[in-house]
Amino acid sequence: MRTWRDPEVIKRLLTTPATWAVVGLSANTGRTAYRIGQYLRDRLGMSIVPVNLRGEDALGEQGYERLADVSGPVQVVDCFVNSQRVGAVVDEAIAEKDRLGIEAVWLQLGVMDEAAADRARAAGLDVVMDTCPAIEARA
Fold it and tell me: Residue 79 is inside which H or E element, if any?
């Protein structure tokens, strides 16, 4: 199994100002996606776009049901969905790549799909898998 944690890619993603679509971020303050969305915005200075099944707003930002609903731009798609569902999110990121300006997909800690990662890489996207921006930023 190939590693999907290139230190140079991770450093660039975490230090370059960007808009991150956080898939799975809703108004539920008890969810990890909420804490990490807040961390991305408040500690790393990123803009965030909540994407969740109900299109709920979160952290004062307008929410969307799908990446296809986002007006743009988005550079990173951060996936807080389980491994069985993440392939569809990655495929949507690939489909919306040119319209939104997507450059990378980040699959959160415990979220793994080698085939989806391969598809994203083949489409020209950077891929980080099975780690968390808050963990990597402190490393």
Answer: strand 76-79
